Amino acid sequence: MISSDDAEALDRFLRREVGADGCVQVHETPAAKVYVGRERVLKIKKPADFGFLDFTTLAKREWAIRRELAFNREIAPDAYLGVHAIVRLASGDFALDGVGGPADDREVIEWALEMRPFRGPVLADHPDRVDGWLAERLGREAARLHARAALSTARKGSAVLDYVLTSNAYQLRSLGPALDQDAVERLIAESGEAFDALASVLDRRGDEGFVRRCHGDLHLGNIVVEQDHPILFDCIEFNDALSEIDVAYDIAFLLMDLAFRGREHAANRVLNAWVDEAARSLGDGAGASLALLPLCQSVRAAVRAHVSGHGGATDKARAYVEAAVRHLAPSPPKLFAVGGFSGSGKSTLARALAPGLGPAPGAVVLRTDEIRKRLWGVGPRDRLSADAYSLEASQTVYEEMLSAARQCLRAGWAVVLDAAFLNPAERAAAETLGAELNLPFQGLWLHAPAEVLRQRVRDRRDDASDANEAVLEGQLVRDVGEISWRRVDAAGDMDSQLATVWGSA
């Protein structure tokens, strides 16, 4: 270990080394120090030992630095550039990789990770930016990361949560009167009960390939946005027990973090994008992951609670404990269906409804436009030919939507069906599903003047729907049968539409 004098000299050296203009910022965590220049970033590990992390020797820090480079290159390849030995020359000066002296005239005193500076904001500092299209991209990017991730065969799915629950209990209790210990004990007990109920499910998912080497620390502090594109970074490299996890536990951190920051609508959009993309790339039925999310989000909130508490943020720690308890008592599932002609705003209303339905962060929106694209093996914004819209093809799409809805509802999750529902049999099938599962059902039929619908279809951009004006004209002259669902004036603003819905739900 270097002396305190050497540590000060190393600090000065790294501040100079990141650029001719000097160091712009220094970010410090309990386990690392990051020197940010205008053209270069250097990161070193601290000689810390927290039990779950041990960087106490030079060899251990080198191992962690090299792993950090390898793991993060898989998710942000152009941001992570290399590893450097920091050496002391015979002159006493420091250099990177021995530059400035012969190879046998140096002593390696530390290891550094080189990155390029990020050219955009960290989302933890700007959570309000996570909305709409960015939330959609975040969910899909996370699912693609999970699809690329290496499978873990070393651990059962229950092992990770068991490990974290034990750690959480110890850490929360150790905070003593800083937290409401009655609430802490309630959280520990209810977490244990939820874990026992899901342990076999977790282990089965491990056997099915959903325990992978994930990011492990997927919250807003580890996501930046460059030119509207989210970049995930700083995944866990130091402890495989925290990174070889169920994909549901990985995405749960981001969902919990967004909701805790008051971004429930964004969290719901992330969830829905992740569910659709996971079905494409992981072959994972939505329900299998959704059943785990209340417990997984609770565990993530509990981790944040003791980290905040030990960092002196007592009020935030208490709020995290409260959030963790709430996640373990989710609202019961409901089934909603939103129908109407093209341009009536079905998807807009469905997305507005979803965050207020069922467990946090809200209902899964199953949209026939997206399901059709998935079944035909194209991206959600790619165009399809008329063959994909034949009567037979559409019947297949509706059957897939109802099958997915059944799985979600059985997992305790709320569902909003987003489809035209022009056929009375399609509407009847949705109603039958609610009755079959003995769940509340609400059907909504959106209507608006024909010219309003035409203008909306003309104005639509970058959307999964392929419906054009010709399609709409065909719908307008179609006999859709008797509409028994609650009629909603789609020409009105969203507040009035929601008032109509919630007044009848």
Note down, in words, how this protein is organized.
- This protein has 505 residues and is of the alpha/beta class.
- It has 3 domains: 112 residues, no CATH class; 205 residues, Aminoglycoside phosphotransferase (APH), C-terminal lobe (Aminoglycoside 3'-phosphotransferase, Chain: A, domain 2, Alpha-Beta Complex), CATH 3.90.1200.10; 168 residues, P-loop containing nucleotide triphosphate hydrolases (Rossmann fold).
- The protein has 18 helices and 15 strands.
- The chain has a 6-stranded antiparallel sheet, with helices on both faces. The protein has a 5-stranded parallel sheet with strand order 12-13-11-14-15, with helices on both faces.
- Strand 8 and strand 9 form a beta hairpin.
- The protein is elongated and about 90 Å long.
Supply database-style keywords.
505 residues; alpha/beta; Aminoglycoside 3'-phosphotransferase, Chain: A, domain 2; Rossmann fold; six-stranded antiparallel beta sheet; five-stranded parallel beta sheet; elongated
